[in-house]
Specification:
The protein has 105 residues and is an alpha+beta fold. Helix content is 14%, strand content 17%.
């Protein structure tokens, strides 16, 4: 589970850790957040990639990636490479189908 929840003094506190299987990175191991939304907002500001299941139906749950393990993004749009099937030269299948020029070329 990437989102960590603990109870201290009868109050819930939150932290996240990276979903990359080889990473044990936590957002800030010494700082727990009382508000989950503040935690996620600060993590995004610090470069964490947070993928929500409702925005990415192919995911089984929300996913979190630290700055070192962010998933690749399409070079021409905002799609994220959750599954590399159909991706070519940094472009997602939709941009390839629409023949959008690759910005990295």
């Amino acid at each position: 589970m990437a989102r960590i929840e603990e109870t201290f003094d009868d109050r819930d506190w939150y932290m996240i850790e990276c979903d990359d299987p080889d990473c044990e990175q936590r957002f800030d191991d010494g700082q727990w957040y009382a508000d989950e939304y503040d935690l996620l907002a600060d993590a995004k500001d610090d470069g964490w990639q947070i993928l929500y299941r409702d925005e990415h139906p192919e995911l089984e749950r929300d996913m979190h990636y630290c700055p070192a393990h962010r998933l690749p993004e399409c070079s021409t749009c905002t799609n994220i490479m959750i599954d590399s099937t159909g991706w070519k030269d940094g472009q997602c299948p939709e941009c390839i189908k629409e023949e959008i020029p690759n910005e990295r070329s």
